[in-house]
Specification:
Layout (H helix, E strand, L loop, with lengths): L4 H24 L5 H12 L3 E3 H8 L3 H13 L3 E6 L2 E9 L1 H22 L4 H16 L1
Antiparallel strand pairs: 1-3, 2-3
Helix pairs in contact: 1-5, 2-5, 3-4
């Protein structure tokens, strides 16, 4: 039986959902989620602080979603908001010491999950998968 594009799409979506659920469950054990981890990662990469608008751009989402995400991170003590010294109307999300620790733990969980989930692939299969995903992403 030939594989159709539609069945390929559903297979990719089903696999992505399964992988996401596994990682989310592990992150939840330490009070994180994939969106929280992504925000902490962008802040870390940016030198530990970003205006909310720039954080929204880096996360490829609208500012209202980032505001809600930063609200949750701030409630968890992982991020603090401060005034932007360059623009009094803007707020900056700043990583806290607890945020740095949570990011380190979260990224460790992500890496461990990646190793476990992709260990069923040979190195050649893994390389091939990355090339295929990059090709689909570029299209």
């Amino acid at each position: 039986m030939a594989v159709t594009q539609q069945s390929s799409l559903f297979a990719v979506l089903r696999t992505a959902s399964c992988l996401e659920s596994r990682v989310e469950a592990r992150l939840a054990d330490i009070g994180l989620s994939l969106p929280k981890l992504a925000a902490l990662q962008r802040l870390t990469q940016a030198g530990e602080s970003l205006p909310l608008g720039q954080l929204a751009e880096k996360l490829a989402c609208v500012k209202s979603n980032v505001t809600q995400l930063v609200d949750r991170l701030e409630a968890d003590g992982l991020v603090a908001r401060t005034a932007d010294p360059n623009d009094g109307r803007s707020r900056i999300a700043v990583l806290t010491a607890a945020g740095r620790r949570a990011f380190a733990r979260g990224i460790g969980i992500q890496r461990q999950a990646e190793q476990e989930l992709f260990s069923v692939l040979t190195p050649d299969e893994s390389d091939h998968l990355h090339r295929l995903l990059a090709k689909l992403d570029a299209h």
